[in-house]
């Protein structure tokens, strides 16, 4: 995701420049010569606002079991994909195929091998949309050093949750929650590929 702090700094700098160029204390000749500079600063301000909007619109949250050695996972299978959007355009076989293809592409880019059937080191399950407001997930002992706990995961329109589970222990080892803060189904659909890519940008997790 874009660096929000950096965006704020650029925005503040651009605003300061515009205020300086608009000062009534500047001589007319300087204002005239500074026309191009003012245009450039306005362009920077617009780009900064756009970057800030992107940063706010999409959020990626990742959690993982720090006790797990992710290097031992070599294969994966997509076991289940739930589409729970109230909008038909986000609840179709075309969207399911698209998400399956994206997940396969980005995990293979990480060096894992897709297994269409049979046993696999990791089972992938995902949910797009809303599921009665929230879903309860029990995390195993050792997750980030905590004991066994129950967490409510909110599912709202524009939320994609991708789970990686270890079938040998039947436990959740990695989870990404991607949220696109848009109410328009078409806008959410356009961002699906990006949501999957940014989620797997954080895989495998860095050991702490």
Describe, in plain words, how this protein is organized in 3D.
With 208 residues, the protein is α/β, with parallel strands linked by helices. The chain folds into two domains: 4-57; 65-200, Double Stranded RNA Binding Domain. Helix content is 38%, strand content 27%. It has five helices and eight strands; from the N terminus they run αααββαββββββα. It has helices at residues 4-21, 28-33, 35-57, 93-108, 185-200, and strands at residues 58-64, 75-84, 113-114, 122-129, 134-139, 149-154, 159-166, 171-180. The strands form two sheets. Strands 1-8-7-4-2-3 form a six-stranded mixed sheet. α4 links the parallel β2 and β3. The two termini are 21 Å apart. Mean pLDDT is 75; it is low at 1-8 and 45-56.
In one word, what is the shape?
globular
What fold name goes in the CATH topology slot of the largest domain? Double Stranded RNA Binding Domain
Order of helices and strands: HHHEEHEEEEEEH
Largest sheet: 6 strands, mixed
Assign the CATH class of the largest domain.
Answer: Alpha Beta
CATH architecture assignment name of the largest domain? 2-Layer Sandwich
Tally of discrete structural domains: 2
The SS-based structural class is alpha/beta
Considering DSSP H and I runs of 4 or more, what fraction of the residues is helical? 25-40%
Provide mean pLDDT, rounded: 75
Radius of gyration: 23 Å
**Beta-strand content bin:** 25-35%
- Number of helices, counting only DSSP H or I runs of 4 residues or more: 5
Number of strands: 8
Strand order of the largest sheet: 1-8-7-4-2-3
Question: Which ranges are low-confidence, i.e. pLDDT below 50, for 5 or more consecutive residues?
Answer: 1-8, 45-56
N-to-C span? 21 Å
